[in-house]
Amino acid sequence: MGARRTGGYRWRVPEIRAATIDDAERVFELLDARSRAAFGSSEVSRHLVVGEIRRSVDDRFVAVDNQRVVGYAHIRPSHDVVVVAGDAATADALLACVEERARSREIAAIEATVVAADEQFHSLVERATEFGLFLSGG
């Protein structure tokens, strides 16, 4: 499981796979770190994040580089999407996985709730919208 070269990116993009229960703690760490970076503090609850993933890993994906989870994406039952990754190429690849899953489930549109302070997620949504990807909202 290492990084792979994909789609026109000049850098390696980590492998994307379905999330497992074993990924729950690392997913919490990623979501917590993003929240702290965007807002200066975090209201992300370890108990809630880990509990949600333990209840269901459906429609959840992780990016893995050198056996370490470096990104996470989830399409919620409401069709709202969550994506967190350390770089744009990984975030784009995770979003593509979510879009593919949504299409396979015949979901007409996915949405993202974005605030300007979350620059990384805001940038992902702008790129997705600019290139006509399967995303509404933002």
Bin the strand percentage. Answer: 15-25%
Work out the helix count. Answer: 4
The largest beta-sheet arranges its strands as 1-2-3-4
Mean pLDDT: 81
The arrangement of helices and strands along the chain is EHHEEEHEHE
Counted beta strands: 6
Distance between the termini: 33 Å
Overall, the morphology is globular
Structural class of the secondary elements? alpha+beta
The major sheet is characterized as: 4 strands, antiparallel
Q: Uncertain spans, ≥5 residues at pLDDT below 50?
A: 1-7, 130-138
Radius of gyration: 14 Å
Q: How much helix is in the residues?
A: 25-40%
At a glance:
With 138 residues, this protein is an alpha+beta fold.
